[in-house]
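Question: I have long wanted to understand how a fold can be written as tokens. Here is the record:
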Amino acid sequence: MSTKLYVGNLTFGTTDAIIKDLFSKHGAVTEVNLIMDKMTGRSRGFAFVTMDQAGDAQKAIQALHGQDLDGRALTVNEARPKTEGGGRGGFGGGDRGDRR
């Protein structure tokens, strides 16, 4: 059964290939999803890695959490399921009654 991992504290220069190479040392990687900012096109500093075997994912967490990559200590843990209704705040909306 595959396991999805969260990988955080990445530099803007980290690529999918770098992440895949790093995690492949611990088992089969089926997918790397480096999250990009829609406005700037730059990395948002985190990614999700799907590993084929749960045991390999646990090995990767133990080996890579806190490891230095390009001067930053990686955060690696099992990804949590996406919560309902998240990511919708920030820019107001609705009628405040002060526009004409």
